Amino acid sequence: MCATALGLVYPNLLRILVDNIIMDGKFELVPKLSLFIVGVIALKSLLQYIHGFVGARVGNRLVLRLRNTCYEKLQMLPANYYDKVKTGDLVSRMTSDLEAIRNFIGFDFAQFINMGLTIVFGSLLMLWIDWRLTLLTLLLCPLLIFMTFRFEGHIHPAYRGIRQSMGRLSATVQENIAGIRTVKSFAREDHEVDKFAVHNETYRQAQVEASDVLARYYPVIELLANLCPVLLLLFGGLQVIHGSLSLGEWVQMSTLTWLIVSPMWWIGFHINKYTQAKASGERVIELLDHQTSYRRSNCTLDKPTGIPIQGDVSFEQVSFAYGDDTSAYALSEFTLQSASGSVIGIIGRTGSGKSTVMHLLTQAYEAAAGKIQIDGVEFDRWDPEILKEAIVPVFQETFLFSASIRDNISYGVDEVTDEQIMEAAVMAQAHEFIERLPKGYDTVIGERGLGLSGGQKQRIAIARALIRNPRILLLDDATSAVDVETEAKILTALKEYMKGRTTFIIAHRISSVWHADEIIVLDKGKIVQRGQHEQLAAAQGLYRDIYEVQSSGLMS
Ligand SMILES: Nc1ncnc2c1ncn2[C@@H]1O[C@H](COP(=O)(O)OP(=O)(O)OP(=O)(O)O)[C@@H](O)[C@H]1O
Questions:
Q1: Which residues form the ABC transporter domain (predicted)?
Q2: CB of 324 shorter than 6 A to ligand 1
Q3: Complex ipTM, two decimals?
């Protein structure tokens, strides 16, 4: 604001220089006043430097906090959010969108204030000198402002298009890198290149569209802006000739006109920046506004906290659909009672709803109907953190971090000794192969566990779950990539370890579940059979079909 005020003092000094010094022949004062003008300009520059310095800091700090908040939000969002979004798009929101916001807050926002003040106070000053001449000079300004707002109306959708296509482009690159092995093994490199080229072309078109808008509006805005000083030259010049305006006043008005019109002209550029930041802001806000887990926001106050979970699990007529279509239940009227200490096996065809049971227990999704209870207390009434501590899953798709094996196993546990890590690895039958690696537990594995076999990754994932000392352990096809012999060893070790706790084993192989206290057979989301292995193997039904196929060696 001070810099802007000094900017308005300078034309006044020019008027004094012309009218009171040069016209009056007091040439000895010229160097002094010139020096004073230089001083004013230097002070203005200093203030502008401070503004730039502070603005950059404000922008950076704000975006630092915004980025951290977005990242926190990503950790809190429910699992179904990630069913719909693309990773690359989220990455683009966290990087280039936040960058656009930083640029606007750090630089353009202050320019906005500067321009606004210059226009308002500069115009008032001009009106005070000669209001008629001012109105004539600024005759075209409403048109100029109208054009800049029209420009904003066209450029905003264009910039939104750029941001969206950038998000899609990033998503394509991210997906391609994540699935590069599949791409190569299916010899789909050319197809992928073509797919990328299409998105790249869309991005180019979005950029061209924005450039077209810029190209159409800038010359018109520039022309209108330049006509103002021409009008002043014409009408003001006539007044100077007729003696109704001093030359100094004309110089002052001329400088003020430029001071006012330039920001109006640049208003287009700053609006342009503003719209970019607005488009980015909308995308960031959409992420921040997304509702986090229902359970977290609706936790009842009488939830049991601090009570250790024993491990009794009960499902009563539980139904669940992934989408809004409740006729397509992934799990329908699912009922189960398991006392702590029991092993529950869940088997069934692909897509029959087995993993859905685990998704409900891990709070990834919420049941649409029915009741889930842990130790006789309704799921909703438990503190989610306590549930997370007690119910530990091993997912079907093993995800390991690009860190050492030690760090991967101890992930999620604060204080852990080497002995505990080793103990968990021994139970998961991972210790032997880890020891054989040149750096043992310090071996750093590649991104998503690259560098290890599928079975090795699964065993590390089991060790990672066991170290958390779960009360309820959920194994979702967790030994599918492990050979039958190793699987048997893992299950024997688990039997001992999980005494007094509950284990859910979701599997395709009979060998994974035959020893369970109760085996549940699912088909199309419904329980079609339940009982123990001997019982089920003897009865007609899906279980026996699976058993016969597997024991005859057609499937293993
Ligand atoms: N995130 C999801 N969004 C929409 N539908 C889903 C989602 N996950 C699973 N489904 C659908 O729900 C049904 C049950 O899926 P679920 O993963 O529970 O089966 P599953 O028995 O574990 O299968 P598999 O043995 O292949 O792992 C399937 O029809 C599946 O297509």
A1: 313-549
A2: no
A3: 0.94
Say if CB 472 and CB 494 are below 8 A apart.
no
How many angstroms separate the CA atoms of 438 and 436, rounded? 6
Tell me if 355 CB under 6 Å of ligand 1: yes
The class level of CATH for 313-551 reads alpha beta
Q: What is the pLDDT of residues 393-410, one digit of tens each?
A: 888 888 888 888 998 898
φ, ψ of residue 369 to 5 degrees: the values are -145, 160
Q: What is the pLDDT of residues 229-265, one digit of tens each?
A: 899 999 999 999 999 999 999 999 999 998 888 877 6
Three-class DSSP category at 454 = helix
Domains 2-289 and 313-551 share a fold: no
pLDDT in tens, 100-121: 898 888 888 888 888 888 888 9
519 has which bridge partners?
Answer: 345, 531
Q: What are phi and psi of 345, to 5 degrees?
A: -100, 140
Residues 265 and 255: their CA atoms lie apart, in Å, by 15
505 vs 476: CA distance, rounded Å: 6
- 281 CB within 6 A, ligand 1: no
> Model pTM?
0.69
Residue in the block written with tokens 């604001």: 1
Which CATH superfamily hosts domain 2-289? Answer: ABC transporter type 1, transmembrane domain (1.20.1560.10)
351: alpha, beta or left? (left if phi > 0; alpha if psi -120 to 50) = left
Pocket test of ligand 1: the residue of 355, 504, 520, 523 to mutate, having most ligand atoms within 8 Å of its CB, is 355
Residue spans of the domains in the chain: they are 2-289, 313-551
